[in-house]
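Task: sequence design from structure.
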């Protein structure tokens, strides 16, 4: 199936360009319009899912289990379906400009992902504080949930911040090649969103973990009771991650990010009076 808001000239330009370029995701500008071109991804390896599922089992957190991303035509169809469903619900996602047999064109979400901004020193001109950027992400996740939706891949790298006329900015969500709605209940998928965002941001913030926990709870407390219950349960099983090493070398980013999230989860557990 093919649908488009692009002109025949734009489509020909894109097809000629990607025929000569190997990249799967490409940024193009034609006639003043900036867009992202995504080719189909090769099928993901089942072993990667096994590793994530083992992690979820170890932590006793089924909501962290891998959501299958099939790649190929099925993966593209999934992303098209998710983009349309989220846009129809009022969630801020890229506009779907064109659907071809083996690629799609999306509006450009801008260059600034939240994880890039949180790691940037100094911040670009016109960008508010890192705390404000982080909370913009929290507010965007909450707004998505209040529209009855979930994200699945709510990592900060998949959340782009754009300035607006009010200087407050807005968050645009990207990357929807998997569909959690088929494997997770709504409250599970929404709780997963909070955990993945915290995992991908806490280690980047130069803030007292107790302060971060208070601000995190401010937003989670506005989510449904079912989501709050799952997060409360997660604090008990994930708080021990705070004992992981805090040095990026030689342990790497993954260990440090888990440690940062665990530290905030421990503070959140104390805030919620979860038995240790």
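Answer:
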């Amino acid at each position: 199936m093919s649908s488009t808001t692009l002109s025949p000239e734009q489509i020909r330009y894109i097809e000629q360009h990607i025929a000569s370029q190997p990249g799967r995701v490409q940024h193009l500008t034609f006639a003043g319009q900036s867009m992202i071109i995504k080719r189909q991804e090769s099928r993901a390896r089942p072993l990667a899912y096994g590793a994530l599922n083992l992690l979820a089992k170890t932590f006793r957190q089924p909501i962290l289990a891998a959501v299958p991303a099939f790649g190929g035509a099925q993966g593209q169809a999934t992303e098209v379906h998710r983009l349309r469903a989220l846009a129809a619900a009022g969630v801020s996602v890229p506009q779907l400009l064109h659907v071809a047999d083996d690629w799609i064109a999306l509006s450009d979400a801008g260059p600034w992902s939240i994880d890039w901004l949180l790691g940037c020193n100094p911040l670009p001109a016109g960008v508010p504080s890192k705390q404000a950027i982080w909370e913009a992400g929290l507010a965007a996740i909450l707004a998505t949930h209040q529209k009855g939706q979930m994200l699945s891949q709510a990592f900060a790298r998949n959340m782009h911040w754009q300035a607006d006329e009010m200087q407050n900015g807005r968050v645009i969500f990207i990357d929807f090649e998997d569909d959690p709605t088929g494997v997770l209940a709504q409250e599970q998928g929404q709780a997963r969103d909070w955990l993945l965002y915290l995992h991908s941001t806490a280690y980047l913030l130069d803030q007292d973990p107790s302060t971060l926990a208070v601000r995190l709870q401010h937003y989670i407390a506005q989510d449904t009771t079912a989501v709050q219950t799952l997060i409360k349960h997660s604090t008990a099983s994930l708080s021990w991650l705070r004992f992981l090493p805090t040095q990026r070398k030689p342990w790497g980013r993954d260990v440090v990010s888990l440690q940062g999230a665990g530290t905030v989860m421990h503070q959140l557990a104390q805030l919620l009076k979860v038995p240790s």
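The longest strand covers residues 33-39.
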